[in-house]
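Technical annex, item 7. During the second reporting period the consortium partners agreed on a shared format for inverse folding records so that results from different sites could be compared directly. Each record opens with the tokenized structure and is followed by the designed sequence. A conforming record, contributed by the partner at site C, is shown below for reference.
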């Protein structure tokens, strides 16, 4: 691995944190129950995203166990249709890890900087993601085989319990 310091990385590329890890599943309820019952994770947010044809649940530590104000979460994704990206992923790879998401300050600036360095992004412009965040993805072929999501959280960060969003 390289030895570049964070000062050598342009501010547009500096990740603030690992935002979440995405897990694809055909059985949302069973997967959520597993992480709840085995590890004590709680449902922080749930929404239906019609644009991406998924239902998603964000899981995190109970507030009294969280190490930070905004801890890394697990995102459990289940397809709403057979032609969604998550359905195609499940057909190709089966259930399991689907993405790694990095939290960034400005998804458009980060996307522009990455394109300038020759990386392919899946969307020409950022799209609305979970809980009103703005997102884009680095193509896995340019990120060591990992689907890398860039997440600019909506402000203020709201942790609700079950709001549906048809974005």
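Designed sequence (site C submission):
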């Amino acid at each position: 691995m390289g030895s570049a310091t964070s000062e050598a990385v342009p501010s547009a590329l500096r990740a603030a944190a690992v935002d979440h890890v995405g897990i694809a599943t055909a059985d949302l309820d069973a997967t959520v129950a597993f992480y709840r019952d085995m590890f004590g994770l709680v449902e922080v947010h749930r929404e239906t995203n019609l644009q991406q044809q998924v239902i998603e649940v964000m899981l995190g530590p109970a507030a009294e166990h969280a190490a930070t104000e905004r801890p890394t979460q697990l995102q459990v994704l289940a397809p709403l249709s057979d032609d969604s990206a998550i359905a195609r992923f499940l057909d190709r790879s089966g259930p399991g890890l689907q993405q790694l998401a990095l939290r960034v300050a400005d998804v458009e600036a980060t996307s522009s900087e990455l394109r300038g360095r020759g990386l392919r992004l899946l969307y020409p412009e950022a799209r609305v993601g979970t809980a009103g965040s703005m997102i884009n993805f680095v193509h896995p072929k340019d990120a060591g085989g990992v689907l890398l999501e860039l997440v600019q959280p909506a402000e203020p960060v709201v942790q609700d319990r079950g709001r549906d969003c048809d974005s």
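Helices lie at 28-39, 85-93, 107-116. Confidence is low (pLDDT under 50) at residues 156-167. All partners now use this format for quarterly exchanges.
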